[in-house]
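Hey, quick one: can you model this chain's 3D structure?
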Amino acid sequence: MTSPIEQTPDGMLNGLGTIADWGQKTQAEYEADRVNMLTEKTENITLFSVGASLVDSMVRQIADILSGFIVTPINDIIQGVKDWFSGLDDQFDAATNNAISSVTSSLSAVAGSLVDVAATILGIQNVGVENATSIAAINAALGGEAGSGVYFVDTFDRADSTSIGSDWTVADPSSVGLTITSNQAVAGTAATGSVFAACNTITLGDNMSAAAVIGDPLSGLFYDTALHVRMNTTQTAWVYLNIFKNKVYLGRATRSGSSSTYTDWVSVTSGISITNGTQVELRAEGTTYRAYVGGKLVAAYTDAAVSHPVGASYRSTGFKVRNDSIGRSLALSSFAMADITVPTTLGTGWNLYRNSTSGSSSTSWTSSGTAFGSNTFDVEDRKANVVVDNLGLGRIKTIKSGWYTVTVHAVTSTATALGGVGLLGGASSGAMSMIKLGQVGPDSDESYDDFTGNNTTSTNGKTFGATWVVYCPADYYLQPCGWKQSSSASMSLVGNPAGYNTNFSGALMG
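Sure thing. Here's the predicted structure for all 510 residues.
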């Protein structure tokens, strides 16, 4: 009988070939074939185990990246998975191999996308590190240059908000909005136009710097973000550095409502590349303005004609961002400003005095201490690293904390009963009280040396003076005062051109 045509693959019955072949094998050949079959199946199982392990590593590393961890790049792991699929080609029949080939091709596309996603995530993380490094570097540099001690920095490291914070005064004539978004200052989207922000910290001198670290480039190719120096408090006049992704402009501007007029002094339209982490700075020294990108000087202009005003009314710094039809200008990851005026007086201290020999406006001295008249002091003789908050009253504000020696000297225009000078202090100008009391002066029945050095009678003025050592924190207010031991008396003070009659002085020790 002729055997039927075989309808099953070789080895279907027992893995050893056809029945005829099987019948001709010796016992040794049979056992060898069994060993080979088992080895082949074990290798396939091992191959699948390796592939499963590779896939597991790939998925875990992608999960780690998405969770925020910086991990070893996954390219090698993904390639291993692809190689594993390709290696299966000769283990299966044609149909299975075609399926494997399709999976491998798909995996290549998916793997490429995963690599791109991972690279993007890692890139964002790296930008965060670069921005932090840039912020730290520029802040340290400006802080070290703040000769007067006036220095401010905002890293915008706070929750998303439609308000930029109390350290700023915002001018938003177009109702664009100025927001904190992902730890960056960025224009809102409520309308199109520019929004301006002025730092509430004002420089003491005319030389200043404004610097920033760029965040998200957004649509900075088309719309400008700007740094401003020598700006007035109404934010209607300033010197600018207008910043795009590929160019910068240095000049002066004025604003009326939402309309601004720009006068470019210098245009730099080539060789500029600004992106995440780029440091930008605008400096004003004398009548010269300099612009830096990435620490490199890119533009400078000397305003010899002083076309933009310089002086006490133009000591604000700030920035501008913009929203328009196709996007927003460059975001800022940080802003820093510093007063870079070289002090004419070294150290920290002040000396105020009354020049006029006429009597000042009178105040009624009491036992709890009374401020001198509002026009008592008329000369700011010298100061360094302090703010003269009110010259007439002699009120100053410290910038640096520490121990200060403080002296008050006063000459009254008329005689008075027992009393003396004192010192008012407080954390704000509206909440001051007497913190030091001077020695009691002579009463009206005693003779004494007046401000002319002559022995006088009690009908003339009296001289009072005292010196103290006082610890003052930063931003602390000090002001001289007078006091009476018993009943109150209306007192007026006189001065002289040399400044030794009525004066208020102090210095930081050490």
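One thing worth noting: The chain is about 20% helix and 35% strand.
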